[in-house]
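Worked example 3 (structure in, sequence out).
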């Protein structure tokens, strides 16, 4: 919506016979960019290419925000009432069912994310091999973090098993938890960042920022609550 263009202008131009054109710059020049000179105005221009009123973009934002909200609300409700465990016959079966729902919601989120990128114009200066392979490398690192986190935690450890009373014996400190906290979340964020770069998509970058913000908020809620669960466990062990 740069230059006071109306909402959806990029899509209308694409429908009329071509994507919106931006000045092409040599991709090799990105390597010598002095990032200390990048100012807020440059970021405003970048995200000015994004039509935030586009229906697909709004749906993607809602799906991103909904997922952590959903699993936190449901998991806390289960921890308080044990309703899911009673319904499915055991805490483990209930956790598996919630995990399956979370995986399905993540697939829907990824689909909405991709469709939102497709509905918005590319930034031609990024539509080159250097950006594509940089994004591919970032996505690979993110996939490594997500996969290794899952292997270290297991299914119930990954999908909120501690809220169901399925507690781990000790804190996981192996890779990737040895180098950063919440590697599952930040690995997922890295995958979306790499995917956005591979598609030279300013809309994708903005949506990735929404992913990072939603995970940051989720960590603020999940961290203290999970610590309290394990604190009570330790207190119960000591009292025996």
């Amino acid at each position: 919506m740069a230059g006071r263009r109306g909402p959806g202008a990029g899509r209308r131009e694409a429908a009329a016979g071509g994507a919106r054109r931006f000045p092409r710059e040599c991709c090799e020049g990105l390597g010598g960019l002095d990032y200390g000179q990048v100012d807020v105005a440059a970021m405003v221009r970048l995200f000015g290419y994004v039509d935030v009123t586009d229906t697909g973009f709004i749906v993607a934002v809602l799906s991103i925000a909904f997922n952590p909200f959903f699993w936190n609300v449901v998991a806390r409700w289960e921890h308080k009432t044990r309703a899911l465990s009673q319904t499915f016959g055991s805490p483990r079966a209930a956790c598996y069912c919630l995990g399956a729902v979370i995986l399905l919601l993540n697939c829907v989120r990824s689909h909405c994310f991709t469709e939102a990128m497709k509905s918005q114009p590319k930034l031609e200066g990024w539509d080159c091999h250097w950006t594509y392979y940089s994004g591919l490398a970032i996505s690979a690192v993110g996939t490594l973090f997500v996969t290794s986190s899952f292997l270290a935690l297991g299914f119930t450890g990954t999908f909120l098993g501690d809220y169901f009373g399925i507690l781990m014996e000790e804190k996981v400190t192996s890779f990737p938890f040895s180098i950063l906290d919440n590697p599952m979340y930040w690995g997922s964020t890295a995958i979306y960042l790499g995917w956005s770069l591979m598609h030279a998509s300013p809309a994708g970058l903005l949506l990735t920022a929404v992913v990072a913000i939603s995970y940051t908020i989720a960590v603020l809620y999940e961290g203290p609550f999970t610590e309290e669960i394990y604190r009570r466990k330790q207190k119960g062990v000591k009292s025996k």
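Notes: Helices lie at 9-17, 40-47, 55-81, 83-88, 91-118, 129-158, 183-198, 202-239. Residues 1-35 have pLDDT under 50 and may be disordered.
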